[in-house]
Amino acid sequence: MDLLHLKPSREQGAPIYLQLYRRYQEAIASGRLQPGDRVPSVRSLASELGLARGTVEVAYQMLVGEGYFVARGAAGTVVSPRLGNLVDPGRAKASAPSHAPSPRPRALDHRMLPFQLGVPALDAFPRKTWTRLAGRTVRTLETVAMTHPDPAGYDPLRRAIATYLGISRGIACAPEQVFVTAGYRGALELVRRTLLQAGDLGWYEDPGYIFARQFLERAGMRLAPVPVDEEGLDVRIGLQRAADARFAVVTPTHQSPTGVALSLPRRLELLEWAHRRRAWIIEDDYDSEFRYHGRPLPALKSLDRNGRVLYTGTFSKVLFPGLRLAYLVVPASQADKFRDMVDHLPDPGSVLPQAMVADFMEQGHFARHLRKMRPLYAARRGYLADALAELAGGRLHVQQQAGGIHILARLLPRQSDRKLAMAAQDEGLAVQALNDWRMRKSPQGGLLMGFANFATAGEAAAAVGRLAAILENPGRT
Ligand SMILES: Cc1ncc(COP(=O)(O)O)c(C=O)c1O
């Protein structure tokens, strides 16, 4: 349990406000709370811990007075962004000092709010099929599969993934190269433990997927931001800034979050760099299944002649994130090393969901589901894009993206995306600021918005109407 949420006790000798103050100090120093992180309001913390508001207020005043916290009026109180690399020496060393701290975007909590990112259309999830498969799996699971599962993943699922990747992504791999993991982070952790060392330097797309960045930074990796333009990661800048990096984390099919595809010349340059430098490329192919126009691009892994690409995919977008199932495909030359490592790490969890997903794929439901979801997402994307054009067209510009389940809308120059996103979040809208996903801030802001759960044009228009009112008058909240 998070110590910050344990009730301070009178028996510990120090006054309660002081205990609270020290806990926050300690959480900041150890990096558990990071510059820019929002802290609970006085009222909610007092009620959560069963303390008088005045007690919490005194602790907060001390923390503000000493520069640990910054009060931002209606936007709440945050850990001072200025603390930068004073906190957690390990972490500070890992990131170049000029980079912005990696804040945790507020909107990604566990509620389903309009514009929620990263969540597929849950209303269209094939529950009936899933229920049938659940019953069948429980009835027919072989006795041997009910003993301790293989930590590399349930064998029929590894086979189904290898077949699917061969057909859909142009990746030729044997089931022994496929490792089922607990989410994308499970895949990253497996790569880190098998091939990397604390302090290793890696290229990171800027802007890039914030949660992987936080995970890697906390794991002691040093990340060099490499800018992304309309052709994806700018490999030449990566070479200028950090040619000696040990790894690169990339989203070549549909860059997260800008949505651009990595061009073929850059793919080849990236592979060439990795080959020459014996560096590893982690390819995060998180939502390649959803593309609405143009041909789906083959995975970078399909061009990997020298065995430098570690390919990851997830079931979070095609099925649902609560499943916590992802996978990693490793080069054939590394399969034994990974096999050895998984035997000593936490496994991907229960065999039951793995067996259900294997059946889902083998029986053709997976392909059918994708066929159903593509036009559905294209329609929902249209609902959001149309509503934005109609109700907020003068204030933001929707970027053309060929796929994915979110939209990036660019703001007018010098409009603060962070302020707008915070104001929107205060109104219960889960939009996120592009600058929160950047390592180096940019004057060109943008808003990230999920569209998968807008079931009708009316729902999208209602949410955009609320957002447009905030864009008109961001100071109102
Ligand atoms: C860029 C990116 N990579 C990977 C993932 C998958 O994460 P997980 O498998 O842990 O749900 C996501 C999910 O939102 C994502 O947006």
UniProtKB/TrEMBL annotation:
Span list, region Disordered: 87-107
Gene3D superfamilies: Type I PLP-dependent aspartate aminotransferase-like (Major domain) (3.40.640.10), Winged helix-like DNA-binding domain superfamily/Winged helix DNA-binding domain (1.10.10.10)
Domain HTH gntR-type: start-end pairs: 14-82
Biased composition (Low complexity): 92-101
GO molecular function: transaminase activity
Keywords: Aminotransferase, DNA-binding, Pyridoxal phosphate, Transcription, Transcription regulation, Transferase
The UniProt record lists the keyword Cell membrane: no
PROSITE patterns (alphabetical): HTH_GNTR
Protein family: In the C-terminal section; belongs to the class-I pyridoxal-phosphate-dependent aminotransferase family.
Designated name of the protein: PLP-dependent aminotransferase family protein
Protein source organism: Pigmentiphaga daeguensis
